[in-house]
Description:
Layout: H1 2-12, E1 18-23, E2 26-33, H2 53-60, E3 63-69, E4 72-80
Helix pairs in contact: 1-2
Amino acid sequence: MVSELLANAxxxxxxxxxxxxxxxxxxxxxxxxxxxxxxxxxxxxxLDEGGRGLFxxxxxxxxxxxxxxxxxxxxxxxxxxxxxxGNRPR
Length: 90
């Protein structure tokens, strides 16, 4: 998820780009940039070479979203930290 969100910011937005990881009951990845353009969830065709990044983030995360503050946008994704046995990894 980190690489997809960073790649989207690098390809489609302006810098500076900021990555923030927050670990609590879950892991939240936040990527901020100086663009207010909203990200679009696309469904790429089988022969398309791009357009799957945000779709993959949506499929792999518990939830994701975008928030705006002034002239900055932050796209975030939340991933649970519990393993298959229900225990948190150490």
